[in-house]
Each structure stands twice: as C-alpha cells, then as structure tokens.
Write a structure and sequence with these properties.
Elements: E1 4-13, E2 16-26, E3 31-35, H1 42-49, E4 57-62, H2 71-75, E5 78-81, H3 93-103, H4 109-118, H5 132-145, E6 150-154, H6 162-179, E7 182-187, H7 190-196, E8 199-204, E9 207-213, H8 214-219, E10 221-227, E11 238-245, E12 249-256, E13 266-268, H9 272-285
Parallel strand pairs: 3-7, 3-8, 5-6, 6-7
Antiparallel strand pairs: 1-2, 1-4, 8-9, 10-12, 10-13, 11-12
Helix pairs in contact: 4-5, 5-6
C-alpha cells in the first residue's frame, strides 16, 4: 500500500492554485524527498496529507485512509512536523514530552528521553532558551516518540547550522533504520536528497514534474555530447530534458527508455544534482506545460 497516493489532487487559494492535478504514489518503506522552489506546492501537499487542509478537488489517501474525516484512526499513525517547528516556548522539555504523552496513545517516553540525552539536551531546559537547532531536534523527537508509521516533515533541517543539521538527520535515519518508518520530507538542500533519501519527487508550478526511485532516476538519465553535432540524430528512445550548446559542441541530458549504446555520441552519467536542476530549469522555462513526466518504467502543527 502506498503511504501517500493522490489522484488529480488540487488546492486553490482564491484565484491562485497551490497544487494542481497532482497524481502521485509514494511506496511504503521509502524516505521520499519533495524538491522544488518556493511556491511549488510542497507544503500544500504535505498539509493535505496531514489532514490540515481540505482539497479543492481530486483525491488523497494516506496509509489507505482519507486524511479528512478519519482524524483519530489516522492521527495516531502519522507524525507531522511543520517547517515552523511550533513548540510551547514557555514549557520545559520534559513538560513538552508529558504533553505529547497525554495526547498520543502510542507515545514512548523512553524513546523521547533517549534521543534528547544523546543530543545533549536537558529535560529541564526551557524551549525558549534552546537554540534553533535544538528546538528542531526536540520537535522531531516529539514526532518520533509518537512511533508513527509515517513521518511527514516540512523542511525539517531548514536554517540549521551544519552540526545541528547533521545531528537532526542522524536522528531521523536512526528511526528509519530501527523501526522501518516511512518518511516524506520537503527540502531545498539537494545534498540531503542523495544522503538520506531513496525516492524523489520534483515539483514546480504546483505540479509534479518527476516521481520515481532515486536509483532509477540516476540510472535512466545520461549526458549525450558531441562536437560538430550538425546532422546527427539522437538515438531512438530518448527524451531530451536539457540542452547545453556552444559554437563547437552540444550536450543533451536525456531520459532513456532502453539501454543506450551509440558510438556516435559520448555518453556520460550525470550527478543527481544535475538531473534535479535540469528538471527544475525545464519547468521554469515552460510553466504552462509543466506536468508530471512519467517514468520510463512503467502554519505551525506538530501531531
């Protein structure tokens, strides 16, 4: 069962679309990254998945349930962290944990205490005396202590210093490794995608541009380069995503549907960052036609 599945999902804010015609299926057991510029629709999608916003049209299912209308049964299975990382600033850390215990039937206090101890955060510290990174770590710990089947995280490491970012990502990956929790997170940091994620969703202009396993995304794209390209035809079964040209040579980033062997072109493997940037550039240049590319194979909430 997909952890998040949508069909024609759309959300309108007045005259503006926050999300439009989103059809998506994220498999269970994945750490899925939502990547895209500000305003691409990432937070809108995650808030609807968390049951905090109702779609204008279309359908969304989370762990096989509709988020709106199945609050109690679904809420205990999902942990959601908003990018604002809301906490009661006047509470001590242990008071935040007792609040979490009282509102979540699956709460594990041992997990909460273990994580903050490993992070060097005292249970007696007040939230408003913690650094931004420590507040983010406490907020994520609250989500993890709930022991959810699915974690939905909106920019969990945004604006953190390198050490705090590394600690938070390690905490997240420890949970994934020990419990097999599925994770869907949005991020602007492309380095995080390659280091912790195994499923990629690229969004732009409120639509899905690409969605597939990370390994398959890398393996199904290649650079084709040639000097004096005039008169050369591209191999069959490729789709051009990006073109770099000069007076002497040309390089195409292509998506392949078949194993590619063509001695008339120099074939090299792009990095994940290069693939992501090419899709974002394509969507920016052609917003009116930005839509999902089918794979060649077939404020303030914590809950």
């Amino acid at each position: 069962m997909p952890v998040i599945e949508t069909n024609g999902l759309s959300k309108r804010f007045g005259r503006k679309w926050g999300l439009r015609d989103c059809s998506l299926s994220i498999p269970a057991g994945k750490v899925a990254a939502l990547v895209g510029p500000n305003g691409a629709g990432k937070s809108t999608l995650l808030r609807m998945a968390a049951g905090l916003s109702r779609p204008t049209s279309g359908e969304i299912n989370v762990l096989g349930e509709v988020p709106i209308g199945n609050g109690a049964s679904l809420l205990k299975r999902v942990g959601y962290l908003d990018q604002e990382r809301p906490l009661y600033r006047g509470f001590r850390v242990d008071e935040m944990f007792r609040f979490g215990e009282g509102t979540n039937p699956t709460w594990n206090m041992t997990t909460a205490h273990t994580y903050v101890e490993q992070l060097g955060i005292s249970l007696r510290d007040r939230v408003n005396n913690l650094s931004g990174g420590q507040q983010a770590q406490v907020a994520l710990t609250i989500c993890l202590a709930k022991q959810p089947e699915l974690l939905i995280l909106d920019e969990p490491a945004a604006e953190l210093d390198p050490v705090a970012r590394e600690d938070l990502l390690r905490l997240l990956m420890r949970e994934v490794a020990e419990r097999g929790t599925s994770v869907v997170l949005s991020t602007h940091a492309l380095g995080d995608v390659g280091s912790i994620c195994d499923y990629l969703v690229i969004m732009s202009h409120s639509t899905i541009v690409l969605a597939d396993d990370l390994e398959f995304v890398v393996e199904s794209h290649r650079f084709l380069s040639a000097t004096s390209p005039s008169g050369r035809e591209l191999p069959e079964g490729v789709t051009v995503i990006d073109t770099r040209s000069s007076s002497r040579d040309v390089t195409y980033l292509v998506r392949m549907t078949l194993p590619l062997v063509d001695e008339t072109w120099e074939i090299t493997e792009p990095t994940l960052d290069e693939i992501i940037m090419a899709y974002l550039r394509l969507a920016r240049e052609s917003p009116s036609t930005s839509s999902r590319h089918e794979s060649p194979s077939t404020q303030g909430q914590i809950s």
